[in-house]
Amino acid sequence: MKALVYTAPEALEYRDAADPVPAEGEHLIRIESVGICGSDMHAYLGHDDRRPAPLILGHEGAGTIMGGPMDGRRVTINPLVTCMQCPACLAGKENLCPHRQIISMAPRQGAFAQYVAMPARNLVEVPDHVTMDQAALAEPIAVSWHAVRLGLEAIGTPKHALVIGGGAIGVAAALCLAAQGAARITIAEPNDIRRAYLNLNHGIEVRHPDRLDAASYDMIIDAVGFDATRAQCSALASPGGVILHVGLGGGTAGLDIRRITLQEISFIGTYTYTMQDFRDTCTALFDGRLGQLDWVEARALSDGNAAFADIRKGAIAAPKIILKPEFT
Q: How does residue 106 score in pLDDT terms, banded at 50, 70 and 90?
């Protein structure tokens, strides 16, 4: 098969790779759409030891099952493979499984390829009215759905929610907030190109980070995760509010622990999603509660190297680039 292989920092090669061989209980999937994630960018820049070269990246995939009793079924992929036997899995918190693996992270190859093999339990069938590009958004949106759910469990429906970052996770977080009942939502996005592009309706406002109101947001989702954005969260959270930290941009500083303590601001780290979160996300996606999902730009998988370079330069308006394998 053809695959886009990460070979060294800022180097990707479109080349031949071994076809995946499904294990017992797995299906072979012909990938039709696969998104570029921020974690793929971290690996591309050489910042992720969990993704050593050479490796096929990509975990936001959707496609068609090839062979077996489900041949021809259109599916979207939950890329998180867990043991299903540990206390976390048995409690429905599969994202905390100590044995968890994810495709695109060693030792599992990813979905920037024509084919990938996945366990049957990780597949959700996609209805005919949903495109493969839309179905590939289920994974990043599930990350945000999980974060919003944790925030709602912590403080209830927010009066004014802030999302830091207008990339795919940030946009998805705003849409998930709207789908789960939040009425006033602001996205903070510094990139002029991206900010001008975003027109999400659902009452979602997009602002430059310099135009935010201090101590005014009772729920903040940091979809970036740098020292500077954590500092923003500390300053912008209202007393009794909650900060949901999703982004893994880098750094270890930024939190104003004194203010967080004195104002009883909750800080919750949030990672991926549970299987139920993924299914709930798919249901919301399929029934239209998450909007048109048209904030993507599609490119050929063979053009992946250029796509990564364009993202690196900040030249992409759309929050998500979808790569599409070519078949002859």
A: confident
Q: What's the CA gap between 250 and 42, in Å, rounded?
A: 10
Residue 161 lies in a domain: yes
Helix axes 138-155, 275-286, angle to 10 degrees: 110
Q: What is the pLDDT of residue 199?
A: 84
Average pLDDT over residues 100-125: 96
Give pLDDT, residue 160: 97
Examine the domain organization and report whether 11 and 128 are in the same domain: yes
**Predicted pLDDT at 200:** 82
- State how far the Cα of 313 lies from the Cα of 328, in Å rounded to an integer: 32
CB 143 within 8 A of CB 167: no
Spatial separation of the C-alpha atoms in residues 189 and 196, rounded to whole Å: 10
CB 7, CB 110: distance < 8 Å? no
Among residues 325, 320, 307, 225, the alpha carbon closest in space to that of 44 is found at 307
Q: Is 177 helix (H, G, I), strand (E, B) or coil?
A: helix
Instruction: Tell me whether residue 276 is in a domain.
Output: no
Alpha-carbon gap, residue 133 to 207, rounded angstroms: 27
